[in-house]
């Protein structure tokens, strides 16, 4: 007979105390500061901000520390905190063409107007452990030069001049807000992009990889990948015009994909788009590939049954907080449910045994 295991308030308090002790680790080792996490684990901080839908490096670093480095738990903490914040209004759409780029590369134009900027990247590193870091080796200061001022045009604009890529007409329709309203199907592109930008990086990467392996018609080039700071402006009703209220770091990816054409339109390339908080380029590229795959219907393509083409499958399973909650709830007490199924199995076994006895007697 299975019986319920009872847990009381004291047990829960002790579990919390043990968790805090485990989080701290050996007290002979200096404690991590929020600034250390923010500055030295910046890519983890960026991921937490992106999937937590809140741009605040200090809070993301605090969440990583509190969660013992479990990034999904940290994202959960950030989203929970986000719900407590008052909302004063909405900012103006950011202009990524005015980005102060730390990194800007194109896989389609070698001689990119404005130049290619490699920036801080792992792309050209040997994947060898650097034991100097274990010895707290000092890092030499990187060479620097004066930044070139002025807007940095998007690469796809150059294709646009010849009409070789689909147009993206301006649309002033206010987009739905996924952070305040539940996801509903069918989801338009604005809603899909919102869901993808805060989707789990690993899930999005897997779907993007599947499209490259042939599970959707999606052969892409990275038209441009850019990372940098953009100003955020907000219109103040009392003033009647927009003012800058801060800056955010963004990663933007535009892919140039297989072309389409019709009796009325000449062949032209199509687009995929990704935009994510912080330096999160793997996620931005993945997002652009999945975005393009999800556009099969509006581009008049066939649905070949690839997972990345199924908006309901992608969007309802991409959120790691929802996925974690539903998955981890099965470790909570289900004693009554299990007792019910246990009794059913026993009944089936008794009935099966009775049938065998009956057959033997006959």
In short:
With 362 residues, the protein is an alpha+beta fold. It has helices at residues 9-24, 34-40, 42-52, 57-66, 71-82, 131-134, 155-161, 189-197, 201-212, 281-294, 311-317, 320-328, 335-361; strands at 100-105, 220-236, 241-260, 268-277. Helix 4 crosses helix 5.
Keywords, please?
362 residues, alpha+beta, four-stranded antiparallel sheet, 13 helices, 4 strands, 40% helix, globular
Structure in words:
- With 362 residues, the protein is α+β, with helices and mostly antiparallel strands.
- The protein has 13 helices and four strands.
- Strand 3 (241-260) and strand 4 form a beta hairpin.
- The longest helix has 27 residues, at 335-361.
- The protein is globular.
Strand and helix layout:
Layout: H1 9-24, H2 34-40, H3 42-52, H4 57-66, H5 71-82, E1 100-105, H6 131-134, H7 155-161, H8 189-197, H9 201-212, E2 220-236, E3 241-260, E4 268-277, H10 281-294, H11 311-317, H12 320-328, H13 335-361
Antiparallel strand pairs: 1-2, 2-3, 3-4
Helix pairs in contact: 2-4, 3-4, 3-5, 4-5, 8-10, 9-10
């Amino acid at each position: 007979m299975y019986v319920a295991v009872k847990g009381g308030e004291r047990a829960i308090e002790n579990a919390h105390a043990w968790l805090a002790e485990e989080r701290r680790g050996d007290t002979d080792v200096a404690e991590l500061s929020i600034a250390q996490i923010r500055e030295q684990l910046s890519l983890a901080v960026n991921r937490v901000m992106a999937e937590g839908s809140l741009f605040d490096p200090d809070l993301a670093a605090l969440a990583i520390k509190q969660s013992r480095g479990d990034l999904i738990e940290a994202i959960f903490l950030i989203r929970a905190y986000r719900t407590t914040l008052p909302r004063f209004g909405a900012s103006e759409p950011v202009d990524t063409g005015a980005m102060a780029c730390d990194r800007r590369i194109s896989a389609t134009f070698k001689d990119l107007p404005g130049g290619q900027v490699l920036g801080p990247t792992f792309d050209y590193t040997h994947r060898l452990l650097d034991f100097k870091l274990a010895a707290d080796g000092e890092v030499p200061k990187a060479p620097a030069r004066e930044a070139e001022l002025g807007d940095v045009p998007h690469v796809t604009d150059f294709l646009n001049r010849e009409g070789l890529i689909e147009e993206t007409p301006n649309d002033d329709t206010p987009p739905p807000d996924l952070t305040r309203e539940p996801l509903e199907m069918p989801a338009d592109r604005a809603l899909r992009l919102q869901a993808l930008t805060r989707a789990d990086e690993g899930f999005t990467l897997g779907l993007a990889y599947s499209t490259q392996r042939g599970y959707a018609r999606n052969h892409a080039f990275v038209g441009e990948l850019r990372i940098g700071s953009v100003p955020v402006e907000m219109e103040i009703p009392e003033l009647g015009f927009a003012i800058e209220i801060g800056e955010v770091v963004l990663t933007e990816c535009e892919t140039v994909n297989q072309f389409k054409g019709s009796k009325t339109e000449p062949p032209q390339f199509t687009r995929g788009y990704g935009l994510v908080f912080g330096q999160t380029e793997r996620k931005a590229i993945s997002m652009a590939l999945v975005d393009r795959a999800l556009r099969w219907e509006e581009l008049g393509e066939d649905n070949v049954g690839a997972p990345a083409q199924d908006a309901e499958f992608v969007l309802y399973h991409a959120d790691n907080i929802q996925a974690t909650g539903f998955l981890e709830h099965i470790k909570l007490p289900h004693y009554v449910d299990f007792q019910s199924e246990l009794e059913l199995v026993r009944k089936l076994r008794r009935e099966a045994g009775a049938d065998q006895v009956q057959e033997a007697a006959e």
